[in-house]
What we know:
Blueprint: H1 2-61, E1 64-70, E2 73-81, E3 88-90, E4 100-104, E5 107-108, E6 114-115, E7 133-139, E8 153-161, E9 170-178, H2 181-187, E10 190-191, E11 197-199, E12 202-204, E13 206-211, H3 212-215, H4 219-223, E14 228-236, E15 245-248, E16 261-270, E17 273-282
Amino acid sequence: MKKFEQGQALVLVLLSLAVVLTLVLFILSRSITDVAISSRQEESVRAFSAAEAGIEKSLVIGAGTSLTTIGDAKYSSEVSDYSEGSQDFIYPINMASGDYATTWFMAHDSSGNLVCDISSPCFSSDAPTDNRPFIKICWGKPGTDNDVATTPAIEASIFYESTPGDPTTLKISRDAYDPFTVRNAENGFSEANNEVCTISGVSYAFQKTLTYANFGIPETSYNEQGGLQFMQTRMFYNSDQSHPIGITVDFDDNLTLPSQGQSIVSTGTSGQSNRRLEVFQGWPEVPSVFNYAVYSSQGLTK
Length: 302
């Protein structure tokens, strides 16, 4: 009988030890996991901060590649020209109602000044007629309704010099396009095409192909580099959500766009954590409010 009781006691002791050991191992496992998670979070924060530092430095030093170590973290950043030599320009930010995107036809030097030369060619076209298409604008998320109050419409404003190289001949020509045809009678916009458009793999709900005749741009302006300056595309009516916009000049193998700004990519690393940031920095431009003001480079006379 005593041996049986002693056996029971031994079993109880072993079970107790097993329970205690299980609890100890569980606590140790959780502690190790918590420490690992905490360390990984700290590394992630340091990697993100390093990536931000790379962006900030690249905004200062400009084009090129930079590799720097900061304490236990490091970053690698690269600055490149956005859409330079391409026929497509995907604006990297979705546009709300009233926002505008600038498409440059002129190149920029390292200081951001407008320039046209062999190393920095500008957009120009030896179009045989004014009715030749030269640019297509696509906008709207796929599946967007074309007959509701929030259907996005656009306005295109093209800035050009009627005599290239003479800033006193700078002119603005505008047209607007609305996929919601019922509104055309009210807002005076031209009709847009309710057809799916794809640029560089990105799809849009609406599109409009522009010709020089649409804007009354003289042949000297689009046949000579520096005649066409830039285009501002403004979006209207989409009060419910922002929409993407894309530009293409894919009508002739010889037509390409100059740099539309700078793309900055920075990767921060700390331990086993990596964080990657991308920033688009457009070229300096005059605020759009001045597009609707009376101004002259030679003064005004009443």
